[in-house]
Specification:
The complex is a heterotrimer of chains A (102), B (276) and C (125). Chain A has 102 residues and is mainly alpha-helical. The longest helix of chain A has 28 residues. Chain B is mostly helical. Chain B folds into two domains: 152 residues, Cytochrome Bc1 Complex, Chain D, domain 2 (Orthogonal Bundle); 81 residues, Cytochrome c-like domain (Cytochrome Bc1 Complex, Chain D, domain 2, Orthogonal Bundle), CATH 1.10.760. The longest helix of chain B is centred in the first third of the chain and has 16 residues. The termini of chain B are far apart. By secondary structure, chain C is mostly helical. Chain C has a single domain, classed as Cytochrome c-like domain (Cytochrome Bc1 Complex, Chain D, domain 2, Orthogonal Bundle), CATH 1.10.760.10. Helices cover 50% and strands 0% of the residues of chain C. The relative contact order of chain C is 0.16. The chains are: A mainly alpha (102), B mainly alpha (276), C mainly alpha (125). Chains in contact: A-B, A-C, B-C. At the A-B interface, α3 and α4 of A face α2 and α7 of B.
Chain lengths: 102, 276, 125
Amino acid sequence: MRGAAVVLLALGIGFAHAAPAPDLAAAKVAVAAADAAAGRARAAGDQWMPTLAALKAAHVALARGDAAAAVTAATHARHLALLSLRQAAEQKRLWRNEVPRQ
Amino acid sequence: MRRWLLLLLALAAPVAAAAAPNPAADRAAFQGWFRHLFPQLPLAKYVDGPYNFSASERAQWQQIMELPPYGFAVDHGKALFDARFPDGAGYASCFPHGGIGIAQDYPQFDPKTGRVVTLPIAINRCRVAHGLPKLKLTTGDLADIDAYMVRTSRGHKIDVVVPDTKPALAAYEAGKEYFYSRRGQLNFSCASCHLQYPGHRVRGDTLAPALGITASFPIYRSKWGNMGTLVRRFIGCNKNIRSAPDKPDSLAYRDLEYFLTAMSNGLPIAGPGARP
Amino acid sequence: MTGKGGCVKHELRILALAALCSLVPLAARAAPTAADIAAGRKIAFTKTLGNCIACHVIPGGAQPGNIGPNLTHIRVLVPHRKDAYAIIFDEPARKPQTPMPPFGRNHILTPAQIRQVIAFLYSHK
């Protein structure tokens, strides 16, 4: 059931390319979500520089009123932040594999 | 019921896997790893870092060392170290033995603040205690004072103490976890390069072994064109793997320097150093 | 921690599917062109892009590193391009201890860029 919902949602995002350009309110929501994800990544101790660069681009686009560019950059930033969070969570367990043993 | 059992197992497993911190055992395994990699290389030689592995870089280095590029920094650092503060005191008043020949004892764990104190941070603490503003921890005057203090400690064996207390061991263990954890978009840990591939080349640069790597800091790096502290190098490494660097006085870098230096106990201080 | 990790995984799956959907029109791919090979060369030799030369010997690349295998004879080393794609995309998934970055998984390179790098590497006879 959850899987089906995920696919439907994904298709929805996929088709969003054909949908009309997002408005500023939607862009603000996307940028806020990216900010939140980046905040979690920082707290987890694994912030990527490209996440910060994409986040900055999203804020700049939002400031000049370019909602489409803001959503694109914010989505990218959020995606990178989530990837780094997954990396940080995995490393909580995996780091011990790199320790030399006697 | 089964779910509870599974949860219990999940909680118990990591606890069982993570033995109590044991810096002495860690150091034996760490140094043993490098001995296994390079059986011919004496421990004390590790402080020469990349020059152990590249004959051409070593020849260039020996030529450079006829007139060490950090010479000016050491002289300037000495002048700053000897100058009096407005209250009449000086740096010497803040350190044991007047600050001479003590670099091998840093970083230290300060039980009062519960934090690791590196030598550069100790220099800043001294300034603050005498009403002076902190200096930048990466380069400039502080790196020069550091260079002078390290120069007076050359040859002294590194002797970082990790007290057998919960907070000190926690700081040590945090530094250890930082060293071995992959991070950044490129997914590297410190160990990925400096423990797994010492002596190998990344483009034209020879990777220094993690063992002994702290002994030559601060360094004059030709690429920088001036002096830099160990934290400056941490920041550069983080950027190379596309990981947002921490603040120079962050707990993450303090703990990392604590662990990394403790792994080199017994090796001689060789700083300040010169690197490509 | 486990709950949070699961949530991140779930959110990532949605994003990955969304990306897949937007890539479907590109799925039908033609044989690599000279332009692909040139683009791949640039990616392999540029620090801010793939920077393959940092660790691998590659024909035509100055000051190569020696952490990874020499890629001069990649056709012998990795006969199938789809295996090369998997290695470049996410080698840690196959070999957790590898120093090879997961270029695809971590969005260091796009799938199209990875294909260009492969076109370049396999252009050496």
